[in-house]
Specification:
With about 525 residues, the protein is of the alpha+beta class. Helices cover about 40% and strands about 20% of the residues.
Length: about 525
């Protein structure tokens, strides 16, 4: 039977030093670490231990140190390979950027002979190969970082490098609105317990007001999805001394006595600082029936389900005002009668018509005809781009303000706001929300303006998802005038804010109408 011995801390250190030096398994400086291990296992005031127990404690320490050393080496090796992959990735990304620029710069005309396009096609193939290499190399780098982190979870440099790669994946998942991947990468980033990325994940931004003159009162409310629409909650006072706001969709309303309220949708992206700019205007400056659109950038295009499918852009649009409703038959008849009083032939040439031959609609056969009440509030249709511009010129002279047709950017911002929503009312579609195909049992006809309450944009502009296509001051595919909006016989695709159409400027149709805009400029004849 082994005889017990009593060891104090000094004796333990001496025995361990002898064991380590004799075994030559590790360097002598580690003796202090080992003695601490033993000291934690045996009381510093002394304890009784057998030789076998002492040997077990020493072996336990040796095994732990060797395991830690092995894992540290494995982590270092994997991290070194990861850094090499990341350097390779940066080089590939630079090459991909150069190739993409060359593709844009060297794109041949459509009519270029095939033989002359071969070099360009090779360039496109090289670009696609490089894009695939970027994806594969990024995956390899991420796997190596995960491997190195699994070996050494306390290494701060490894954790930060891994977090940066996961953050890029998280941002891409947010861009694609992939909720599953968003949750996956959010969870893994949170596990790394880095304060910097915790703040990034919170996503809190700021909202700052820069309007002139300054607002006397400001109210704000959160917009939340409900049955395909973005619906506002309760209004609360906005405190300019506390500009921090959670990321998401908001609506702000600014008040100043003697001026029209400014209403602005707000999208606060992750960690974004948003500034609301603009000017208060009087009712006279804005004109009755017009809605103010504050200046700023917005998300345009980028909807693969829209007609045209144009890529995302973020154009800056100056402040303007746009008609709350399209021009109605009643308003257009005023124009015809005014024109007829000075130039009857010119008035006849601008009559709404069924076709290019000039066949009039039965309810308005002459510029001086009396139009029935049931037609007065319908959006005017059967007019060409030139008819629309002639009307805007007449209206400018009458009202003393320079009107025109909105361009594509202005029209889409007025319909869509700043959050990239698919429809004027939000992100989902129901046929009853707008005047389009299947919106009612009488879906083969147009409804009066404002009939569909839910067809309302973030700024309060109506009937942009249905009713009539609207002529805009722009071009579609180079040689056609732009037409925007949903229409009475259109499907949900037509109602999407990013959808675009076009037609020759002299074309007429029972789907083509228009609305006006202005930029607060006086009309000078």
């Amino acid at each position: 039977m082994a005889e017990g011995i009593t060891l104090d801390e000094a004796a333990l250190r001496e025995i361990l030093r002898s064991l380590l030096e004799g075994a030559a398994l590790v360097k002598a400086p580690l003796a202090q670490s080992a003695s601490l291990h033993l000291g934690a296992s045996l009381s510093s005031e002394g304890s009784t231990a057998s030789a076998s127990e002492l040997a077990a404690l020493v072996q336990e320490w040796l095994d732990g140190e060797l395991e830690r050393a092995s894992r540290t080496r494995a982590a270092s090796e994997a991290f070194a390979r990861a850094k090499m992959k990341l350097e390779e990735l940066r080089a590939l990304e630079r090459r991909l950027e150069d190739l993409a620029e060359r593709i844009d710069r060297e794109r041949p005309a459509d009519w270029t002979p095939v033989a002359d396009k071969l070099g360009y096609w090779h360039l496109e193939e090289d670009c696609e190969r490089t894009r695939n290499s970027v994806r594969e190399t990024a995956d390899d780098a991420l796997m190596l970082l995960l491997e190195s982190h699994s070996h050494d979870r306390d290494n701060l440099e490894i954790r930060r490098a891994l977090a940066e790669r996961l953050w890029l994946r998280f941002q891409e998942a947010e861009r694609l609105e992939d909720l599953g991947q968003i949750a996956f990468y959010r969870e893994h980033l949170a596990r790394l317990e880095l304060d910097e990325f915790r703040l990034r994940l919170e996503g809190t931004g700021t909202l700052i007001l820069a309007v002139a003159p300054t607002a006397v009162r400001a109210e704000i409310r959160r917009l939340m999805p409900s049955r395909g629409r973005l619906v506002g909650g309760d209004w609360e006072r906005y405190d300019e001394d506390k500009p921090s706001r959670a990321m998401g969709y908001w609506e702000i309303q600014l008040h100043r006595p003697g001026f029209r309220d400014i209403v602005a949708p707000v999208r606060i992206a992750r960690n974004e600082d948003v500034v609301i700019r603009g000017h208060f205007h009087t009712e006279v400056e804005l004109r009755p029936g017009f809605v103010q659109i504050p200046p700023g950038s917005f998300r345009m295009g980028g909807d693969p389900d829209s007609t045209g499918d144009f890529e995302w852009t973020t154009p800056y649009v100056d402040e303007f005002a746009i008609g709350r409703y399209p021009i109605t038959w009643g308003e257009y008849v005023e124009f015809l009668r005014s024109l007829h009083s000075t130039d009857p032939e010119l008035a006849l040439s601008h009559m709404p018509r069924r076709n290019s031959e000039g066949e009039p609609y039965s309810w308005l056969t002459h510029p001086t005809s009396t139009i029935e009440e049931k037609y007065r509030d319908l959006p005017v249709f059967g007019v060409s781009f030139h008819d629309a511009t002639k009307y805007s010129a007449w209206r400018s002279g009458r009202d003393g303000i320079l009107y025109g047709l909105p361009n594509d950017e202005e029209w889409e911002k007025a319909a869509r706001g700043v959050d990239g929503r698919e429809f004027p009312w939000g992100r989902g579609f129901d046929p009853s929300y707008c005047c389009g195909k299947a919106c009612s049992m009488e879906s083969d006809r147009c409804h009066p303006v404002g009939h569909h309450e839910r067809d309302c944009s973030p700024y309060g502009v109506r009937d942009m998802g249905g009713g009539v296509l609207e002529w805009c001051d722009g071009w579609y595919l180079g040689n056609r005038r732009s037409l925007r909006g949903g229409y009475w016989s259109g499907t949900r695709r037509a109602a999407r804010c990013a959808s675009r159409n076009g037609a020759p400027e002299n074309d007429v149709s029972n789907r083509y109408g228009f609305r006006l805009c202005h930029h607060f400029e006086e009309y000078r004849s």
